[in-house]
Amino acid sequence: MKNLITKSDVKYIQSLAHKKFREEEGVFVIEGVKMVGELIDEFPDSIVHLYATQNWVDENRQQELASIPLSIIDEIILSKISQLKSPNQVLAVVKMPIQPSHEKTSSEIILVLDQIQDPGNLGTIIRTCDWFGIQNIICSLDTVDAYNYKTVQSAKGSLLRINIQYVDLKVYLSSKKGVPVYAAALEGTSIHKIDVQPPAILVIGNEANGISTDVMAFATQKVTIPKFGRAESLNAGIATAIILSNLIK
Amino acid sequence: MKNLITKSDVKYIQSLAHKKFREEEGVFVIEGVKMVGELIDEFPDSIVHLYATQNWVDENRQQELASIPLSIIDEIILSKISQLKSPNQVLAVVKMPIQPSHEKTSSEIILVLDQIQDPGNLGTIIRTCDWFGIQNIICSLDTVDAYNYKTVQSAKGSLLRINIQYVDLKVYLSSKKGVPVYAAALEGTSIHKIDVQPPAILVIGNEANGISTDVMAFATQKVTIPKFGRAESLNAGIATAIILSNLIK
Question: Which of B95, B123, B147 is the last residue of a domain?
Answer without folding.
Answer: B95
